[in-house]
Amino acid sequence: MNLLEEIRFGFANLGKNGLMLPINHLPRSAPAWVFSEGAVFGVAVELNDDRLVAEAFTGSQLVSVDRIVGGTPRRLLRLESSIQSLRNEFAVICAQMITPGANDCLRKELIDEPSAWWKKWRHLLGNSLAVKSSYGALAELLTIEKLMQQGMEVQWYGPSGGVVDVWTPTAGYEVKATVSCYDSYIHVAGQFQLALASASLLNLVHYRFESSASGDSIDAVVQRLIKAGFDAEVLAQSLARIGFHPGNSTRRETFMVLESRLFPVGTDFPRIVPESFADGCLPSGVVRIEYQVDLAGLDHQPF
After folding, report:
1. 186 and 275 in one domain?
2. Is the dihedral of CA 286, 291, 297, 302 positive or negative?
3. Are 120 and 141 members of one domain?
4. Which of 63, 72, 158, 253 is the most buried (most CB within 10 A)?
5. Which of 148, 116, 301 is nearest to 222 (CA)?
């Protein structure tokens, strides 16, 4: 029985009782385990510190967890899945992950940079998870920060599917972002996104970002917001809802703000809303409209 066969054997026979078995086809200098825990199964190696890891493929995830192994508390790096029908195919990736390489060089690379290993496989296999872009979430967080600096009470509704991303007692703020240097188009998802609230003004905030090693990241802005008094639990839950769990490498992606502009969304702003149609209703059979707006030439101010 080779390494791949041992992993497949473990997947087929461990059941769902939270069992972990050491893998025999590995040197003592680079141990690993095969496990099954509830609905998930996979392989695990030990991390050498308490960092958080939370990356996801379409059908699997790479995460750090704390478990007792042999009576000793350990922080483990686990590659896990819950798709039983593809467990034999999944085992191939598991075997590649835990293979130590010459003088354990591959294991050292994995432990030093788990997210780098994940990014290579994401690039090879693709990742169809529908999550918000990191710069899109960053734009909403920066908007919250700017409004709080102006002394406003702020609520964040974007991650929960709110019609408008950010609300204050006096106005709503729909936030858009791009990493294009020249594109001035925004995508509007639905006939309600730019509809005026009955008692509030509506603004559109548009950010233009550039990827930069010295820019802002989700994690950096989150820490500033917590220090400024924004509820840490609300931030954590909201970010998790759109795929940015603690330890996810996209939370550390950094961007420089090239420009941020505020557009009042009044009656002259180009938009499609229920009032654009007779009796305030979409044509029969039409349930949703998506469209693009060109911001070039529209009234705005720096934000």
Report:
1. yes
2. positive
3. no
4. 158
5. 148
